[in-house]
Structure formats: structure tokens, C-alpha cells
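Researcher: Let's do a round of design. I'm pasting the C-alpha cells now; please hold your answer until I've finished.
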């Protein structure tokens, strides 16, 4: 029996470096000259502008009727806890509440299929306000964060830990969540009748 030949996999041609002396001068890569920074020059730094609604310690745009952006899993957990969404929101905030659903959340509920058809039926309730989305893609978390960053007049209702963590970084946006079979609110100013736990 003869010796088996070893095969070389992914053998590539060696390329000459662009700085090599054998390449003509006009084609050769030029050395980059680093400019020394002037220590006396004024350094410009961009600072994020805070909205005027946060002039006082709390968000002045929040007030009854409350507009509440609802996330996909918030509807699912409300069904599991056997809570009527609109009524429970009013019990939590002691004021009129308007639940809002974006196109992305609606698309996410439709993608979940037959298992979540009850959630989809609840989301199509006429008491829920439908908000159209103009951006590409249907990722609901990004959509909610973007909307809340632009307009500080919403409360976000979610049970998702990652989304809560992202929203906590945005100043002046309260978060509604479910605990002990009832709705609770986080980061709500005392002036608006937020329940004390």
C-alpha cells in the first residue's frame, strides 16, 4: 500500500504588501503622518439636550388621561393573571387611561400564531389607540424605546426585564408592570397619585 497524499485546504496566494519596495512609487501606499494635537485648542463635546418637560424634578407632560404604551408580553401576562387591562390601569393610576398599541406590537402578536389569539383579540379592542410606525422592521422593543425617547408623554407597560432596563436609562418615563395579580407603577412622581408599596 502506498502513502496517501496530504491535501492542503484553503491554500491562498501570498500577496505583496502595498508598502513593499517592489511596487511602483505611484501605486505604493503612502505613510500616514499623525498630526500632533494642540493642547491649547478648545475641545468641543456634544452634550445630549434634555427636554423642557423635565425642567422640574418630574415630567410635566405626564397627566390624566394617561397614554400607556403596551408591550406584547404585558397583554399575555394580564390574560394569565385574569386582569382586565383598561380597568386595572384605572385602578392603579386613579385616572382615565388610554392604552396605546404600536404596529410593531400588533405584528409581533400576529406572528405568535394561534396560541396568542386571545391577546390579539384584546389588542384589537376599540378602547385601545393604534399608533402607526414609520420605521423599518417590526422589533417592538426598539420601537417602544424610540417612541418614548422622542415623546415623553407615555407610560410604558411591560414585564420584559431587558426592556425595563433600557427604559430606566431614559429620564422621566414611568414603567407599569404586573406584581401580585395587580398593576404597579415605577418611577411615577408622587403628585399623580401613584400607589405607595
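Researcher: That's everything. Go ahead.
Model: Designed sequence:
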Amino acid at each position: 500500500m502506498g502513502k496517501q497524499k496530504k491535501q492542503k485546504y484553503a491554500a491562498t496566494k501570498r500577496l505583496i504588501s502595498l508598502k513593499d519596495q517592489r511596487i511602483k512609487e505611484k501605486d505604493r501606499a503612502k505613510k500616514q503622518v499623525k498630526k500632533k494635537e494642540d493642547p491649547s485648542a478648545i475641545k468641543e463635546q456634544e452634550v445630549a439636550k434634555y427636554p423642557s418637560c423635565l425642567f422640574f424634578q418630574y415630567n410635566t407632560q405626564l397627566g390624566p388621561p394617561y397614554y400607556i404604551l403596551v408591550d406584547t408580553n404585558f397583554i399575555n401576562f394580564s390574560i394569565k393573571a385574569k386582569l382586565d387591562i383598561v380597568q386595572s390601569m384605572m385602578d392603579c393610576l386613579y385616572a382615565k387611561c388610554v392604552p396605546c398599541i404600536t404596529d410593531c406590537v400588533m405584528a409581533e402578536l400576529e406572528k405568535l400564531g394561534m396560541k396568542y389569539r386571545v391577546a390579539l383579540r384584546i389588542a384589537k379592542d376599540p378602547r385601545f389607540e393604534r399608533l402607526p410606525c414609520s420605521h423599518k422592521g417590526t422589533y417592538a422593543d426598539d420601537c417602544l424605546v424610540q417612541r418614548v425617547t422622542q415623546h415623553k408623554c407615555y407610560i410604558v407597560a411591560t414585564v420584559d426585564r431587558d426592556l425595563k432596563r433600557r427604559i430606566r436609562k431614559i429620564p422621566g418615563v414611568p414603567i407599569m408592570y404586573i406584581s401580585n395579580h395587580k398593576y404597579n407603577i415605577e418611577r411615577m412622581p408622587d403628585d399623580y397619585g401613584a400607589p405607595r408599596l
